[in-house]
Amino acid sequence: MHQLYVGTCQTDITPELPVILGGMFRKYPVDQVLDPLYASSVAVDNGETTAVLISCDLGIVQRDTVAYIRRQIEAITGVPGEQVCVMSTHTHTYPNMGIESIYTKADVAAVKRIADLIVSSAVTAIQNKIPARMGYGKGFVNRCATNRRYIMSNGKSKMHPTGMNNPDRLMVEGPADKEVQVAWFEDLDGNFLSVLVNFASHPTIYYGCKWISADFPGVTRSIIQKVYGSHIPVLYLQGACGNTAPFDYEHDDTWGRGIEGCRRIGTILAGEVIKIMAENKPIPNETIRIDMRRTQHDIPFRDISADDVAAARAVWDAIPAERKEKLDAFELFADLEKAAHINNMIVLDDLIRKYGKMPVEIVALRLHDLVIVMNPAELFVEYQLQIKQHFKETQVMVVELANGWISYVPTRLAIALGGYEVSQRRVCQEGGQMITDASIDLVNRIFG
Question: Rounded to two decimals, what is the model's pTM?
Answer without folding.
Answer: 0.96
